[in-house]
């Protein structure tokens, strides 16, 4: 757990006194010039704030400089960045367009897929320590050279391996490459299944996003298409029906003529369902509010978020930690500044961008969001045409409570891409979803961020992993970072796949009945009540790789007795000391029986197990001692 400083002021007063966002890119080590109009127009170039070195903080990746190519920066944990590109092994890549980060090979770190503008896309395998290898050809992705735009990772068939969707702006510069959906075969290679699955849309697409729109624990697919206002194309919503896709755009009332660019996904109206916001040309952006079905209603005018500017990147975020999602929109030069719509009831929302330091006019396209300095609020990375990257750090006194949650994936995955989170604090319900590839050509950090307003405890939080596994947590303190583990990984402190005495000793270090969990002990909280007590020990004992012993035959597992203090275990062998007086009980199950005889005979003539008289080998004398103990 990482706690913030004491809150600066009460909720309303802090909000009124907030200094807002301060642009600090160069002072924090970021100096990266992206493409201008003199270079072929890629309609913006992607950025990402993702943890590339597994140290818990978001690092930075940018793809669109014609002079610098793809660059990566390491975050030192305080939001100060060091350029690691020179030794990274990343080749020089011009015409960069989009970026998405996901662990395609399930080795525990985030790999990068770089889409390029009518040049071959590149898959960069993360080999650790900011070293990457070009795995494009080995993965079967060579020659993918459409007008690559926004990409997304998601496990559409729930086989434990991330698949890859690539949105191509088909018909750009004569390119006929349609959208592609690469199925991950689990051996490091992919095969394009877009045509077979009916998602090879030949529209000029800008972004695709995997999102569980109907909350049935498989990811659906939403695709943003340009030039819909001309009547030729429209956005698509494909429902996932167990690994196949059905076009439900019309039946869900999601068809609207847009020149659609960016996609934001989040629960804007607080009903527990994922809403969709799409940027557009100045005739107005679109907000689709979800109801059960899913069926959408168009509510941009009601919410006051039409923007009426040439919009690109967009994202939902709780900028002021008041327990509802606000909305950020990037606009291009000449159409007015960026928008930050504060979501207050009743609608319409107020655009407060200028009030909080985001009112500068420029040619903004792409953005990524993360808590770069881990101070509890969200910071913004923005890309602009022909300018350096800008990093807007939220310097406001914290106006509310917060949580930053790292949700661990079920084996074999390490990141819970596609998981959904429903939470309630102080009677206010919230919803989040973990998405790989979002906004516009870019990616936010995978850690899940909540604002809670005045709530200092989350009453209940439920995570649903892809495929249907769920866990519910209670009494989670706010103003902290926590790791949420799936059931399949509980108790395994070193994550070696085996629950043994090493893990038990780690559990004893966490044991503190009635006290709030310590940092790193979340994996031992089997019942999710935010402490580690004897109930958790009993659940741990039931899952031991070897059946739990009860050497004194009292019906209580030895590990529970040791944890409770009713039995001592001075040698930390997982067996009460009082049960260790019978040497012939070789399996330490509390009696001498046929199992012990089998162990002795299996080691006949050898030193070690069964050498009861310590003569150096197991022989007839040891057999006699065991049989005598058996009779007694």
Structure description:
It is a single chain. The chain has eight helices and 35 strands. It is mainly β. Among the domains are: about 10-400, Methylamine Dehydrogenase, Chain H (7 Propeller), CATH 2.130.10; about 590-630, no CATH class. Residues about 1-20 have low confidence and may be disordered.
Determine Rg (CA atoms, Å). 28 Å
Strand content: 25-35%
Q: Which parts are unreliable, with pLDDT below 50 for 5 consecutive residues or more?
A: 1-18
The strands making up the biggest β-sheet line up spatially as 1-28-27-26
Extended strand count: 35
Count of helical stretches? 8
What is the CATH topology assignment of the domain at 11-401?
A: Methylamine Dehydrogenase, Chain H
Overall mean pLDDT score?
93
What top-tier CATH class of the domain at 11-401 fits best? Mainly Beta
Helix content: under 10%
Span from first to last CA? 53 Å
- Large-scale geometry: elongated
The CATH homologous superfamily of the domain at 11-401: YVTN repeat-like/Quinoprotein amine dehydrogenase
What is the structural class? mainly beta
Main beta sheet:
4 strands, antiparallel
In a nutshell, what does this entry contain?
The protein has 632 residues and is mostly beta strands. The longest helix is centred in the last third of the chain and has 12 residues, at 620-631.
Descriptors:
632 residues; mainly beta; Methylamine Dehydrogenase, Chain H; disordered N terminus
């Amino acid at each position: 757990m990482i706690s913030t400083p004491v809150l600066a002021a009460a909720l309303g007063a802090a909000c009124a006194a907030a200094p807002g966002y301060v642009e600090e890119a160069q002072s924090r080590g970021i100096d990266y010039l992206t493409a201008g109009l003199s270079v072929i127009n890629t309609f913006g170039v992607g950025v990402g704030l993702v943890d590339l070195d597994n140290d818990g903080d978001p690092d930075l990746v940018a793809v669109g400089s014609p002079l610098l190519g793809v660059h990566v920066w390491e975050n030192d944990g305080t939001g100060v960045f060091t350029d690691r590109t020179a030794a990274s092994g990343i080749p020089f890549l011009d015409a960069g367009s989009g970026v998405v980060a996901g662990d395609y090979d399930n080795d525990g770190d985030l790999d990068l897929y770089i889409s390029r503008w009518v040049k071959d896309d590149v898959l960069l395998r993360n080999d650790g320590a900011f070293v990457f290898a070009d795995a494009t050809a080995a993965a079967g992705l060579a020659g993918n050279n459409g007008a690559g735009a926004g990409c997304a990772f998601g496990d559409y068939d729930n086989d434990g391996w991330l698949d890859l969707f690539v949105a191509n702006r088909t018909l750009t510069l004569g390119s006929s490459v349609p959208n592609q959906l690469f199925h991950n075969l689990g051996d490091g290679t992919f095969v394009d299944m877009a045509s077979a699955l009916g998602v090879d849309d030949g529209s000029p697409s800008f972004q695709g996003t995997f999102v569980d729109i109907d909350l049935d624990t498989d990811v659906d697919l939403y695709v943003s298409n340009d030039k819909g206002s001309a009547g030729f194309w429209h956005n698509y919503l494909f429902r996932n029906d167990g690994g196949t896709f059905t076009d439900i755009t019309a039946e869900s009332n999601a068809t609207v003529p847009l020149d659609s660019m960016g996609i934001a996904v989040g629960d804007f109206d607080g009903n527990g369902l994922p809403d969709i916001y799409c940027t557009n040309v100045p005739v107005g952006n679109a907000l689709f509010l979800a109801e059960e079905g899913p069926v959408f209603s168009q509510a941009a005018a009601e919410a006051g978020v039409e923007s009426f500017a040439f919009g690109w990147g967009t994202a939902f975020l709780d900028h002021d930690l008041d327990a509802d999602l606000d909305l950020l929109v990037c606009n291009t030069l000449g159409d007015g500044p960026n928008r930050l719509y504060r979501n207050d009831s009743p609608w319409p929302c107020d655009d407060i961008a200028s009030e909080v330091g985001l009112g500068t006019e420029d040619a903004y396209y792409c953005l990524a969001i993360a808590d770069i300095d881990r101070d509890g609020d969200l910071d913004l990375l923005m890309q602009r045409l022909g300018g350096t990257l800008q990093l807007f750090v939220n310097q406001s006194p914290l106006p509310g409570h917060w949580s930053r949650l790292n949700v661990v994936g079920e084996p074999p995955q390490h990141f819970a891409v596609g998981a959904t989170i429903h939470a309630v604090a102080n009677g206010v319900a919230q919803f989040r979803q973990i998405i790989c590839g979002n906004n516009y050509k870019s990616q936010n950090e995978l850690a899940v961020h909540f604002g809670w307003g005045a709530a200092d405890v989350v009453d209940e939080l439920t995570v649903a992993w892809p495929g249907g596994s769920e866990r519910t947590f209670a009494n989670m303190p706010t103003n902290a970072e926590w790791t949420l583990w799936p059931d399949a990984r509980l108790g395994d402190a070193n994550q070696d796949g085996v629950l043994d005495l090493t893990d038990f000793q780690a559990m004893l270090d966490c044991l503190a009945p009635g006290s709030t969990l310590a940092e790193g002990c979340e994996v031992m909280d089997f019942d999710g009540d935010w402490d580690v007590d004897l109930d958790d020990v009993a659940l741990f004992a039931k899952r031991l790789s070897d059946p739990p012993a009860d050497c004194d035959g009292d019906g209580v597992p030895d590990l529970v007795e040791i944890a409770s203090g009713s039995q001592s275990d001075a040698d930390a062998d997982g067996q009460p000391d009082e049960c260790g007086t019978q040497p012939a009980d070789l399996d330490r199950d509390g009696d001498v029986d046929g199992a012990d005889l089998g162990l002795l005979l299996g080691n006949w003539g050898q030193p070690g197990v069964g050498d009861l008289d310590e003569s150096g080998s197991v022989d007839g004398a040891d057999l006699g001692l065991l049989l005598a103990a058996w009779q007694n």
